[in-house]
Write a structure and sequence with these properties.
The complex is a heterodimer of chains A (153) and B (748). Chain A has two helices and nine strands; from the N terminus they run E-E-E-E-E-E-H-H-E-E-E. Chain A has 153 residues and is mainly beta. A six-stranded antiparallel β-sheet of chain A has the order 2-1-4-5-6-3. The termini of chain A are far apart. The mean pLDDT of chain A is 84. In chain B, strands 22, 23, 26, 27 and 28 form a five-stranded antiparallel β-sheet that branches. In chain B, strand 7 and strand 8 form a beta hairpin. In chain B, 24% of the residues lie in helices and 23% in strands. Chain B is α+β, with helices and mostly antiparallel strands and 748 residues long. Chain B starts with a helix and ends with a strand. Classes of the chains: A mainly beta (153), B alpha+beta (748). Strand 9 of chain A pairs antiparallel with strand 18 of chain B.
């Protein structure tokens, strides 16, 4: 299987890491017919002397896997083989399907605060500003003091 | 650059560059095209002194954007527009403009001091019809054209082929006939008409007077042009800017050319635009805008119907969209210029746009009279000089024709009991007491006289004068005093009905923090106390109060109106009874007869002292009772002990009918200590965290959203509520990973 090595600068929660990947080299697996865990595979791959590959932290495995993996361990042995321990990047590997999901978004970065109640929003609750709006009567004549009512029989 | 893509679409997809090469998003704008960036606002379309956030909302302005008056721009050699930072109008809650100004919109991150607005960041806005109705800040088209008695007739500029020059037809003609032969809509133009003022037939001068009444110059029609100057229409553009998304061609006034039209069409157009034909009763005020370009680039359109061929299949949809566009403007409209001079809102041919609760047009309209009279703008448009409770400039349309007096019906107690009711001013009150206590001994027995005095009471607020009241000598039983007072035939509203000023309770954050528990508001009403109000009902709305006093019981009631509707009431006791009536006074008089002559003046003085004090009612509590105040204030400390026993006996009875106001202390005591005779609303608002960075918070936490759609519809940090990942074609382990990321947050 074809391995494409990258330097990934994206955080793990980034769904589409395409913009954050810098390809540094490629190789092929030696033991592609061995039994491997597709989610956490271990591979041996040919090393062609490209030093940049040793700086990679991310790779793509071509068909039949067609998945992206984090490199959890990369070592070079005397036989110029790369020993790779990998962990699948489930987000990037399935990004198209994930993006196509019908979802209800609970929080979003670019949704400005609106009237949707947000109980996670940090509030400085120990103090409150107090403002006052007065409603003076508009019809009281100036100089008015008081008025009196007298009811007699 | 930060834009709200939800509103404005994606720049690489929906936006049009101002350059004619509309595929080049960041194409440079030639200097000669500068004016094409102008989005209007030359003629008062921008509401004077209105909060900026209302009016610029359709532009999607946010804290990282600015609107820039075009006249302060300098064209620099390095190809940038440089702005004078002192004159940049930034978006905030309090920003207002003092004048109507042309401006362009610029999206840009900029430092506090100054910024350079790159030409290629200044764009036309995309199709406004894509603006979601529930977009943040309610970004919708706003119309606040607040002149009465105006309506529009829309004209469609259309051609038989895309390359052919358009010709104009009024909407009715286009709807009926020309949409089949001229299927390419290129422009919409509107003709603004003023209703004629009288029924004397069309009269040139009457029309002029009508316009003068509007005092357009004072209201921002700075470039208001008389419509037919030098024989042709001069474009007034008074409403330019209501459609900010209309690219405004900057080559000055444009007018509908009749050249090239067939004679019949030309005649129709002449009449339509100039109104010079005597057969047209309505008169053109101005052709007030079109969508901008006489020479429209073939694909540079902003609406679905612009530049697209009208077919039998899509015609109904296009027609509905056109009507929607007309309705967005907010003025009543009439499709046919031929019959427009019969304009009457009662006619079903007249379209009345609908507004939402914020006074923003919705694109909907009504035509039947039964529906129209339910609309707030109906009364407004149908009455030229009458004051209506709807004023578009205030953006508070009422949902129905409404008279606030209906809610608090007036009732009075007719004088069928043979009672005499007198209204005494401070002076006559003193005169009355003097005469009463000195002269009564010589007429009937004092006990008989005082039994006929049913009420002598002071109230804090003036009474409304009774239309039938007249000044006459006070009569008690058969004794006619020399003191004169106003005799009331009945007790109007049982007392006073006084209005306070009307004030809009401002929103502050304009988000959920303007509600409990982050914001609390309470209302203090004199003599009644304080009560909590629901912020969602009061914030952002106009509030006024009315007070009514019951002169028989001493009760006082405050009616609290929100946008003219009665929402809450508070009641309490506000009277100060003068112990002159019935057995109380009789008993007291027998015991203290020898004192009364020098005392009554003190009473009168004392009552006034209490009532003149804004804290009258509560001070009485501190003295034990009202009578205590009166006696102390009037007699002085030296005499108090001498009559203490008798005073106390009477004051107990007074206290029973005069409970102290119930006060709910809220906030700090210092605020409530200064009690007033005027109601007040106190707003307790949670403070924001100092130096709070919204952007950073949103980047790491997001804001409450609860919108549904494809995940691809969202950008940035996003947390999904219980996603259903059933259909994903991956392993269970991967599904678990994906699920965990979605519910804790992914970056898109």
């Amino acid at each position: 299987m074809v391995l494409t090595f990258y330097v990934n600068t994206a955080s793990k929660e980034t769904l589409d890491k395409t913009e954050y990947l810098t390809q540094v080299g490629s190789s092929r697996t030696f033991n592609e017919f061995l039994e491997v865990d597709i989610d956490k595979p271990t591979f041996c791959a040919a090393y062609d002397g490209n030093a940049q590959i040793l700086t990679s932290n991310y790779l793509h495995i071509g068909a039949p896997f067609n998945k992206y993996y984090y490199i959890t361990s990369l070592s070079l042995d005397t036989a110029r083989r790369l020993n790779l321990e990998l962990e699948v990047d489930a987000l990037m590997s399935n990004k198209d399907e994930i993006l196509n999901l019908d979802v209800i978004v609970r929080r979003n970065e670019f949704t400005e605060p609106n009237y949707m109640f947000d109980d996670e929003f940090p509030i400085n609750s120990d103090r409150k500003d107090i403002s006052k709006i007065s409603f003076p009567l508009s019809e009281i004549p100036s100089g008015y003091y008081s008025e009196h009512i007298l009811v007699t029989m | 650059m930060q834009i709200n893509e939800e509103i404005w679409g994606k720049p690489d997809k929906d936006w049009q560059s101002v350059e004619t090469d509309y595929n080049a998003i960041d194409a440079k704008i030639p200097a000669s095209d500068r004016q094409t960036l102008q989005l209007g606002f030359t003629n008062g379309a921008f509401p004077l002194n209105s909060p900026m956030d209302w009016s610029i909302a359709p532009w999607g302005i946010n804290a990282k954007s600015a609107i820039i008056p075009s006249y302060i721009w300098d064209w620099t050699e390095n190809g940038e527009y440089k702005c004078n930072s002192q004159r940049i109008h930034r978006y905030d809650d309090t920003l207002r403009v003092a004048d109507s100004i042309p401006f362009i919109l610029c999206f840009s991150d900029f430092p506090e001091s100054e910024f350079y607005a790159l030409r290629n960041l200044s764009r036309y806005t995309p199709d406004v019809t894509t603006v979601p109705s529930q977009a943040p800040f309610k970004n919708r088209i706003i119309c606040d054209f607040n002149y009465q008695k105006l309506f529009i007739v829309p004209f469609i500029g259309a051609s038989s082929t895309l390359s052919e020059d358009e010709r104009f037809y009024d909407a009715a003609s286009y709807f009926d006939t020309y949409h089949t032969t001229k299927p390419f809509i290129k422009q919409i133009a509107y003709i603004l008409y003023a209703w004629r003022e009288s029924s004397q037939g069309w009269d040139h001068n009457a029309g002029l007077n009508l316009i003068k009444d509007f005092q357009p110059d004072n209201l921002g029609f700075s470039n208001f042009w008389f419509p037919y100057e030098n024989g042709h229409i001069v474009k007034g553009n008074p409403l330019h800017g209501f459609y900010p998304f209309f690219p405004y061609s900057g080559w000055g006034a444009q007018y509908i050319s009749t050249q090239g039209l067939a004679t019949s069409e030309q005649e129709a157009m002449t009449r339509a635009t100039a109104g010079v034909d005597s057969g047209i009763n309505t008169r053109v005020v101005a052709e007030w805008f079109d969508n901008g370009r006489t020479q429209v680039a073939s694909a540079n359109y902003f609406y679905d119907f612009f530049g697209k061929e009208v077919t039998a299949e899509n015609w109904e949809e296009v027609r509905q969209n056109l009507l929607k566009e007309f309705a967005y403007i907010g003025l009543p409209f009439w499709l046919s210029v031929e019959t427009a001079h019969y304009f009457s809102l009662q006619s079903e041919d007249a379209y009345l746009p609908k507004f939402d609760s914020d006074g923003i047009t919705t694109g909907e309209y009504v035509t039947s009279i039964t529906d129209k009279i339910k609309e707030p703008n109906y009364t407004w448009e149908n009455n030229l000089h009458e004051v209506t409770n709807y004023d578009p400039s205030k953006r508070i349309p009422k949902n129905e024709k409404y008279d606030v007096n209906d809610e608090v019906s007036k009732f009075g107690i007719p004088n069928y009991l043979g009672l005499r009711m007198y209204r005494l001013t401070t002076t006559t009150f003193s005169e009355f007491l003097t005469e009463f206590t000195t002269e009564s001994e010589t007429t009937e027995t004092f006990e008989d006289i005082v039994k006929r005095v049913l009420t002598l009471r002071s109230m804090p607020y003036p009474f409304l004068s009774d239309a039938g009241e007249k000044s006459e000598r006070i009569k008690i039983g058969s004794w006619e005093m020399t003191t004169q007072a106003y005799r009331m035939n009945y007790a109007p509203n049982s007392g006073a009905n006084l209005e306070t000023i009307t004030t809009r309770i401002p929103r502050y954050y304009d988000d959920f923090r303007d509600d409990t528990p982050y914001t609390n508001i309470s209302l203090y009403c004199p003599f009644c106390g304080t009560m909590e109000l629901d912020p969602t009902i009061y914030l952002g709305h106009e509030v006024h109060l009315r007070v009514a006093q019951n002169i028989f019981t001493g009760e006082i009631m405050w009616y609290i109106f929100v946008d003219g509707h009665l929402h809450d009431t508070m009641n309490g006791m506000a009277n100060v009874d003068v112990p002159l009536s019935g057995e109380n006074w009789g008993t007291y008089a027998q015991l203290q007869m020898m004192l009364k002559s020098n005392r009554v003046e003190n009473i009168a003085t004392g009552v006034n002292a209490v009532l003149g004090n804004i804290a009258g009612a509560t001070i009485s509590g501190s003295f034990g009772n009202t009578w205590g105040v009166i006696t102390q204030a009037g007699m002085g400390v030296a005499n108090l002990g001498k009559y203490a026993v008798a005073d106390h006996a009477i004051s107990e009875q007074i206290s029973k009918s005069h409970p102290s106001p119930t006060l709910i202390q809220k906030g700090t005591s210092s605020l409530m200590a200064n009690m007033e005779m005027s109601p007040a609303i106190y707003i307790y608002r949670t403070q924001t965290i100092p130096d709070w960075n919204f952007q950073s918070y949103g980047h790491t936490h997001g804001f409450a959203c609860y919108k549904s759609g494809k995940l691809s519809d969202f950008k940035g940090f996003t947390v999904v509520d219980k996603p259903d990942i059933t259909g994903l074609s991956c392993s269970e382990e991967e599904k678990e990973i994906i699920y965990q990321y979605l519910v804790t947050g992914v970056r898109l």
